[in-house]
Structures are given as structure tokens and as C-alpha cells.
Amino acid sequence: MALAGALAALLGIILLLFLLTRLRPERAGVETTLTAADAGTGAAGPPCEAHATCAAGALCTRGRCAPITPETTECRSALIRFARGATELSASAEGEIERAARCALTRHDMRLAIEPSIDAARSPRENEDLTKARQSAVRRALERRGVSPERLRAMGFRDVRP
Question: What is the Cα 1 distance to its own chain's centre?
């Protein structure tokens, strides 16, 4: 009798585990944040693969276009990476610049500071020249996307590391 009860309990647990794995969302292991649209209080934005595929004033966030608001964390900073010694923007850098430009164009109070980077293998003069060329590339890319030059500030090493 005890064996039959234990067997029934084990089968119940197996059935419960089976049902839980079948009913859970496909991406249950991925951390997500619910928005009002996800919770059913509004319509979710259209699917997207990149910021440029969303309408003006929106970013591609977790595969959906989402409106830019003052609380949009993706508008707090952008990290533009260059290959060692390079001044050309990579595809990933273009995506970061697109995001920064969309944020700046939507949030009119936002100003962008373009900070320098250094390469320990280069002399201070080489770093300064490389930084100026990179900042110029970022500035041109932002301006091409409609960001006013008055809202951009290229910072020098003394501004960042006095």
C-alpha cells in the first residue's frame, strides 16, 4: 500500500513537471521586463531587428519597437568601440550611434559628450590624433542622422581625466 502511494506521488510529480515544461513560455530562461504593452494595457510595438527599422521616436528593445521616454534606460549612454588604431565606424558602432541619435532627436534636452579613449601602446600625441579622428567620425555620423552640432561636445583628455 505504501509503495502504491509513493508511486502515485512520483507519477503526480512527473506529470506536474511535464505540464510545467510544456506550458511555460519558449524563452522562460531569458530575463524580461514587462511593460504596460506586455501586461495588456496597450498594444506592443511592431517587431524589429534594429533601431533603424522602428519609427522615429522609438528604439528596438527586446525585438519590439518601444517609444523613447525620459525613463528609457537605453538613452543613458552609448559605447562606441573602434578596432585598434581604426577611425572607421563598425556596423555595431553604427547601431550605437543610431540609438544615441534617436534618443537625442526625441529628447530635446539631451546633450551628447563624445569622450576620448586611449591606447596604452601609443604615445600621448598619437592618442590625441587618433581620438580626434574618432570623435570626428562619431560627430559626423550623429550629424548625418539629424543631431544638431550645438548639442555635441567632443571632450578632451583634460575634461575626463584632469
Answer: 59
CA distance 34 to 37: 8
Q: What is the domain extent for residue 117?
A: 51-160
In a domain, 103, yes or no: yes
Q: 3-class DSSP state for residue 144?
A: helix
DSSP state of 47: B
Do the domain assignments include residue 74? Answer: yes
CATH of the domain at 154: 3.30.1330.60
pLDDT tens-digit series, residues 35-85:
444 333 345 689 999 999 999 999 999 899 999 999 898 998 888 988 888
pLDDT in the model for residue 45: 85
**Cβ proximity of 75 and 110 under 8 Å:** yes
Kindly give the pairing relationship between strand 112-114 and strand 58-61.
Answer: unpaired
Q: How many CA atoms lie within 13 Å of 62's alpha carbon, on the beta-carbon side?
A: 14
Element (H, E) at 106: helix 91-106
134, 83 contact by CB (below 8 A)? no
As a whole number of Å, the CA-based R_g of the chain is 24
